[in-house]
Amino acid sequence: MSPGVASPPSTVEAFAVAEKAAEELVRRVGAAPKVAVVLGSGWRPVADALGDAEVELPMTALPGFRAPSVPGHEGTVRSLWAGGAQVVVFLGRSHLYEGRSPAEVVHAVRTAVIAGASVVVLTNAAGSLDPALGPGGVVLIRDHINLTGASPLSGDEPPAGYPSRFVDLTDLYSGRLREVSRSVDGSLAEGVYAALRGPHYETPAEIAMLRSAGAGLVGMSTALEAIAARHLGASVLGLSLVTNLAAGVSPEPLDHAEVLAAGAAAGPRLGELLVPLLPRLAGPLTGPRPA
Ligand code: 8IG
User: Fold this and answer.
1) Each residue's pLDDT tens digit, 128-150
2) Ligand 1 atom closest to residue 125's alpha carbon, by position in its atom list
3) What is the pLDDT of residues 239-249, one digit of tens each?
4) pTM of the predicted model as reported, rounded to 2 decimal places
5) Contacts of residue 68, Cβ cutoff 8 Å, sequence gap at least 6
6) Which residues are catalytic?
7) I need a surface site. Which of 137, 163, 218, 243 has the fewest CB within 10 A?
């Protein structure tokens, strides 16, 4: 590494900082989360529908967190009791395209799982490759194609006590959690999410390639967080809000303002889905509130 260029944190450091953040989160909230929710672009309107926060912190109050740099990602953490489960909600996330490392991108998820979350709900805004599934549609992620070239597990073996970095990703997006989601909203579609680095959108040729590879959605997040959650043994639910048709599918050029507008328009629908869903996700863990 040349002088003046910061080296990325080692694997050992990344887990150590997540452990510190988890400890601080539990201390500030006074309870361990069972479910973690990451609200991505377009999903901000749903945060208030989940109920009043018992505790709200800026993400930067927790070790290792940096404020998101993207409009629509406010950089706060909320804790609330969602009718049967203690939930931690991250309003905003970090992305590779902001110049963040894979360890930074997955830090919130690692923190929440180390703190106790056994279910991780990853939401995002995405482009749709299916002309019949336009803006406002909500899709359950069935699987992903990670085209970022990055992994949150690259580097040294995780420290003692953590699983091996050679983690199996079969059924990464839990079939059980997708079923539970469909029991709340039977109209939910399913699709394969292609994760790209961005921040540019795709060319029409790239979208044609992704379609032939089986992708139905394209976006710039989620995949690394899902891998990190699975590595730590959590179950993952991925939900995409379609905010645009992908390049070449849409006659219109793509625009980030369109993403936020579609999110605002879809807000009530997203609330109707997530509010009844959250207490059902933790399954047998859900129950009366501990004293
Ligand atoms: I919103 O069309 C949203 N995020 N890569 N392509 C990629 N990311 C996206 C898109 C899109 N729409």
Assistant:
1) 999 888 888 999 999 999 999 99
2) 1
3) 999 988 998 88
4) 0.93
5) 59, 74, 75, 92, 93, 94, 98
6) 41, 73, 95, 97-98, 125, 220-221, 244, 256
7) 163
